[in-house]
Amino acid sequence: MKAMKYLFPFICISLFISGTAYADSIQKKIHFQGFLTDSNNVAVLDDTYQMTFSLWDGPNDNTATKLWEETDQISVSRGIYSVNLGETTPFPYTLNFAQQYYLGVKVGSENIMKIDGALIPIVSTWHAFRADTVGGRNIKSVSQHYSIEKTDDIVLVTGDITITLPSAVNVPEKWYSIKKMDDETTTVTVATSNGEQINDATSITINKKFNDLSIISNGLQWYSLGISDISGITTTQILDSAITSDKIADGTISGSDIQDSAVDRSQLANGSVIPSKLAGSPENGTSGQTLISKGDGTFDWGGFVTTQGSDSISLDYSFGSGGNEIGMFNEPFNMALDSSGNIYVVDFGNHRVQVFTSSGDYSYSIGSAGSGQGEFSLPKGIAIDSNDRIYVADSNNHRVQIFNTSGEYIDSFGSSGSGQGQMKGPSDLTVDNNGMIYVADTSNHRIQVFTSSGDYSYSIGTGSSGSDPGQFNNPSGIEVDTKGNIYVTDTYNHRVQVFTSSGDYSYSIGSANNSPSADTGEFNQPYDIDVDSNGCIYVADLINARIQVFTSSGVYDYSLTSDLIESPVSVQIHNNKIYVVDIFTNRIIVYRMPGSATYTVDTGNVGIGTTSPTEKLEVDGNVKITNDLILANGTSSVSQTILKAMTQSEARTITLPDASGVVVVTDDGNITISDGSITASKLANNPGNGTSGQALISKGDGTFDWGDAGSGAFTTSEGTASGASLDYSFGSEGSGIGQFDDPLGTAVDSNGNIYVTDSENHRIQVFTASGDYSYSIGAGDLGNGQKEFDSPSGIVIDSNDNIYIADTFNHRIQVLNASGDFSYSLGGSSGSGTDPGLFDRPRGVAVDSNGNIYVVEQGNHRIQVFTAQGNYSYSIGTSGSGPGQFDTPFNIALDNSGNIYVSDKNNHRIQVLTAQGNFSYSIGTGTQGSGTGQFHYPYDVDVDSSGQIYIADSANHRIQVFTASGAYDYSINLQHKPNSFNIYNNKIYITDNFGHILIYNKPTSTSTSTTHTVETGNVGIGTSSPSEKLEVDGNVKISGSIDSGGDIKLPDTNAIYFGDSNTDGKWRLYIDPETNHFSVQQRVGGTWVEKFSVTD
């Protein structure tokens, strides 16, 4: 899981000195807080440690004189400890705290940790140190106007001055701490250099002595994490005879107090945290959680866990990823749905609104960066009224823009300011049933209400920050229910405030809790809110990574949490579904709420009580049907492996002697019993390892049932009789050895070594055949020299183990020899170009048996072919959607005959060309889709030695496999988006967008069928308490046959109808309830006429 971008990546060490140069009779003490780590900078285990602290008159303990020392048993929690130095062993009165001293720290017998910051004079009672085990923070003291530098960390400020921040774009994820060191007669102003905003404000002021402003860049914008009031003890307070040294050191500020607001290890980003580590001690699991079998006896926790008050919520689908292409997001901030279910997503960092169909397929976009009509600057909020007009909170332009149903600009209102109708960074808006528009005017700390024509009506809130009822601190979300009640997420007051339809305060929901174990009903930056038709209230609890749900009266009901939900910034309820916008994972997640549903299976067989069904529906157990059994056509049949009895009740039986086959009744009155039998496979007594992808469903008491990872019931094995199985995997997100940031290509050399293009780490990592790290090519930093890279993508290795790398944003192909030494480059040396031999973002590369080199260019929408010596030969393709034309081609492959296969990404197809470059045929419809044979951004293509075609259907999270003639064969479904893959020695090497390398064994035999099975328990459709293996409260329509290994029990209707029971010419099987007489009857003239009967 990715870490929240607001969390600090380190903890500074702070020092507080109590005492004064004017009162030597008062015992001086130092309050010291530190962060204790091991040699890998990982916090030590919670325990008590013996620690020795010392003061020195110089920075080198080999030459300096030790002036004081004491040893304490220190309690450490989450790496953090606090100690009052001088309390156990008092400081000598001879120490002059107005001069510099140096602090040494050691743990047990470990070496002293030297501190390179000095104690400051006693009149300045707060400072921060840089310890060599903490990762260090640079300190700068200033007393005049100062522009912060990239290398600064802590800035100590004295005087009435302005501190200027660098551009947030230039210092992504940089955290600064700005501390005011003098009294309230001066003001420190913090502003940006280019008009960027800080939390939607142009500047922030610090007024109190020793106050601390923490501010962080997300790479796009500055965010203030608040001003910490750590005002020190003044000389007057210390000299006051009523305040003794005991009172000063009474432990009011304890270690636990400090730790409550600290950032613990679980909140820090750590690329080495992988699912198997999370499931290291699974115990019983949470009721409803699933253990996913790896097929080898080990499991990972999977699926999502819903804590709720009623029936379960299930994942429907999700879409989106980080980027600026269509369908991708750069911090999506909000969303809304129109009357047709189309989804409108505010793409904050890309300055646009993207529109998707109800199934999450991209449709079109509204807007681009700018301040003109229809242009946006960091938009945040969106609403759609009853006429499907679109309203957008254009945050950094401080206005609301209105569009028609086609996305065309209509009007706007608002301007920058704090007057009536003016705005500062509006974050959200909604429209009520009367057309009134409610705007969360975030940085003005108020709600403004406008008429349907955009005229100002009234405001809620004082216009300045406050925490009293009816006051706000950065309100970010707003909703109005059907009764006109107004709900506001008061974000930095960590609560929801509710107002009447006239804007009067009614009540509040929630309280603040920023710890990882926040209780239900507590919030940490609630960001958005929605109310459903029943009045239930849904709150996006951003930092606590959950959706909290409350009753219409504000009483907590349940929470929705999930492995998918990491940073929920918006929530919407529509047509019994919950839509969650997850800002930092750049995706939209859709859940089905409890209620009736329709479940369909397009292909393959469904088994209940068996894992190998041979029919469309095979049930190993009794089937109970409350309503009609409808046989849809004249060739349908009711069959039984060994048909002992067909019964209406226990007293009524029909015996067919030696009936060991299928009983078929047709419209012409014929009845046949065929030979042969199909027996149902039985469940194994010992479940063993389970099948790959199957899940153990926790009952919460230490016992489990087999089921499906997604739904907790069905296991789906798609597309193969003995399908592609995961062999092993390695890798995780990060920049360390064996970690990846967007791996976009993979290749295997003749020794089985695996080469991975680690794109955003600008390197190639090489692993052994078993996945162990070997070495890297490239320094890991962006560069344009030999063996330096800028976002490398495709990679291929020829028969001589020469390595060809698409160095994408250096617009070249680098060729290395088998030893990894630079050989030569293709492409120019001065950037992109369109001339022959020049490239614009080459993505894929392939080499044929003669050594000719084929390069796919994303920017020039073509393929260039070079000789084995690297000389330009010819080009294939132009920009477009016709045969032989390309739109952002992404990769290329060649088969044994030299035919060329191109992943035509934005045309959602694979184009197949002859060896001469002539168009042959396409795979895919040319428009995005999720059905078999359809694609949504195919990223990669490869062909194995038998001619089978493998396609990375990226946005559909799968690999689709086709025969040599282009016919669909089967699919491999994946958890994440596949970036690339490579076929080598009957194995499939896949890279995904979460930094994983997955190695699958190719299937030994395949089919196009999909099997859906349930091994244990009963299945109910239309009933929540089935008493049989399959119980249906409703009609069942069967186009094939029923093949049963036991009795078929009929309801009290006494008949099975073949077709519509009210239509002449149709047939039925009938049991007379009085005589148990069984007959086959036909409907003639509205009456059932017996044609023949069967008796014992």
Automatic annotation (TrEMBL):
PROSITE patterns: NHL. NHL repeats lie at residues 316-359, 363-406, 412-453, 463-502, 515-553, 727-770, 783-819, 833-869, 873-916, 929-965. It comes from Candidatus Magnetoglobus multicellularis str. Araruama. It holds the Pfam family NHL. Keywords: Metal-binding, Repeat, Signal, Zinc, Zinc-finger. Residues 1-23 form the signal peptide. One of its GO terms (molecular function) is zinc ion binding. This is NHL repeat containing protein.
